Amino acid sequence: MATDTMPFQTPQVPLKDIGGPLPSTPIPEDADHSTIASRAVEQLSNLQPLAMLHDAMWRDQVALTGTMRTFHSSRTISLAWNELTAANRPQGFSILPKTSQVMRVGPTLHWVEALFAFSLFPEGKRRKDCTGIIRVVPVGDEWKIWVICTLLEDIPDYGTSEKMTPLTPEESLKEREANSISSGKDHFDAVIIGGGQCGLSTASRLKALGVSHVVLDRNEEIGGNWLTRYKSFTLHTSKAASDLPYGGIFKPEDPYFLPSKNIADGYRRFVERWGLNFWTSCVAKKASWDAEKEEWTIEFDYTPPVASGAVNGNGTSVTRRTIYVKHLIFAMGGGGQVPKYADIANQDAFKGEVLHSVNYTTADSWRGKRGVVIGTANSAHDVATDMVNAGLASVTLIQRSRTPVFPESYYHVLFDPFYHEGTDVPLMDRIMESPPLAVTHKFVNVVLNEMASKIPDYFDKLEAAGFAVDREIDLVHCLYERMGGHFYDMGVADKIVNGAIKVKQGTAESFTEKGLRFPDGSELEADVIVYATGFVGNVRYAATEIVGKEIGARLDDFWGVDKEGELRGISKPMVGQKNVWYMGGDTRYARYSSRYLALQIKADIEGETLDVYRKTPGELPN
């Protein structure tokens, strides 16, 4: 049960308030990073506060804590580390060959970094193989541990979640037919609600570990969640960074920024290559928990295929079906794509067309009309660009607050060196995703603001055109706290600067017959108005529609960070309800985090549920 200190819904804390400052002492060019890192790792056998900075951080991902935790301060880390290592009996701490290096960002942000490996041998339980990353900084004439990351890699008795052998087309078809909705099978270890990047990543990890699964997806075909988006949609991350686990699902000729069809084609190849159990045209309606059996009963509506003999497909009649599973995974995207609207009165007074971007496909039919888009984040700019290209008489963005602008060139600088043809993606994911988010937040801010300082003219031109720019680009905040709100400029800024897209500042207070009225009395005439105001960001609301209010009240919230800097709810067990999980994030995060979710479920299926460490030793009471 929840208590005052461990509520069902984890409180959200601003990421900017978490963690200490970044290091600020230069490291000499002749520093022996291998020896420095090795000596730091040797300290892990009996980790004491004096070996660390006073504001050091340790992030554990399911290795010792059985969940996702970040511990802060040398005292707390030492207490938790030594308690957990006593119970888990680690052995073999060793630096991985050729991984130690000095990292230098600017004149003073320097640290020694290395990857290490170790294994856990808890009494009476299976061995666990783990890896870690350690970061060390100079303090006077000493070296202190700044950051420790520990990661559960595998439980060898269960196999590995990181490798699978592709099936031949014949093997895949046979396996998928044997597990199809028409097979009559109704018992599975896990059900995944949603078949996007999160659902597919999780399904593949479960299959690699031998966990029976079924993906229920509301769309008529694999990848349908991408095909239903507006026609001009492309990812804002590179093809190399957007692959699913095990890689190679996109073609060499596919573009750098993938359009919807290429994504859907890749996802279909992924399901076929690995023989995943993917049921289309299935809409989850109800999930009931049997505490005695520790089993979920899942009811869903299925639209049968029209063509007889088809494995899956579109149809016209709807049947209610039932399956029984041990684990329920919600992988529906942020809030299940429930749209948010700006609060503007008297919409019925408007004689034109009003829609949300979730229902937008193309601007082609609006040629010659006056278009207005409410919002200034990515979707708003995509819609506005479509309007210009479709020949609308005028296009105006309504900007309600300053917007962080992220030029495309920034992406290439930040990510292309790490994700490209030939990248060891699993290794790079660990390096990029395992550090504490509070550290990543501060680090990315330093890099982005340094980059922004070099191109003031770019931002000045946008400001001169009436677009209010937030020049302190806090990308991590946008991604992990706001779930958006930034403008990733892939050429749209030029249209604002040259006047093809106009900007109206302020918050509209009401619709009029001809458009929108603002508090200062001004009016903006329009024939079509598109809300590009985002989506509800909390999956708990969509999940509650399925599990009911009683269980929904016991689910954790989704996204945003807790007081440790950990994402809320993602890939970790909940306090209030067993055997229910969230999976979320972009493809890179889904690819990485799905490993931990699958390992936790596999352990439970095998009857050895991972022990979850929820204490924070040394923490002062509130």
UniProtKB/TrEMBL annotation:
Sample GO molecular function, one term: NADP binding
Classification via Pfam families: FMO-like, NAD_binding_8
Keyword Disulfide bond: no
Residue stretches in coiled coil: none
Cited SUPFAM superfamilies: FAD/NAD(P)-binding domain (SSF51905)
Listed InterPro entries: Auxin_biosynth/cation_transpt (IPR050982), FAD/NAD-bd_sf (IPR036188), Flavin_mOase-like (IPR020946)
Keyword tags: FAD, Flavoprotein, Monooxygenase, Oxidoreductase, Pyruvate
Taxonomy, superkingdom: Eukaryota
Name this polypeptide is given: Putative indole-3-pyruvate monooxygenase YUCCA7
Species in which this protein is naturally found: Lasiodiplodia theobromae
